[in-house]
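call fold(seq) -> tokens
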Amino acid sequence: MNVLTLAGRVASNPVRRETTRGVVCEFRLAVDCRPRLWIVVQTWGQMAGRAAQHITTGRTIAVSGQLINESYATRSGETAVRWYVRATSLTYLDRPADVENELAEATS
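ret:
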């Protein structure tokens, strides 16, 4: 069984791409542990579109999915390994900054 659940802050704005296999979106997640874990999260399909639209740097989210490793050849011809999480679900643990600002202005 390969199931991984992480919670952390988004460390980079998502990058959305159209591929022959569909829409893919990737971003980095900073998980607070010792030492801090920086991991790439990859989403596909409708989840990729929603992630690209709603995720911004600094948001707190939880990610569930599979830990994947891929081998690839570098430009110099050497073999390298890439680790990432292929997300099956995303949970937003905070409100977007613009909603927080509107709430603060409304209560002032």
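DSSP finds two helices and six strands in the chain.
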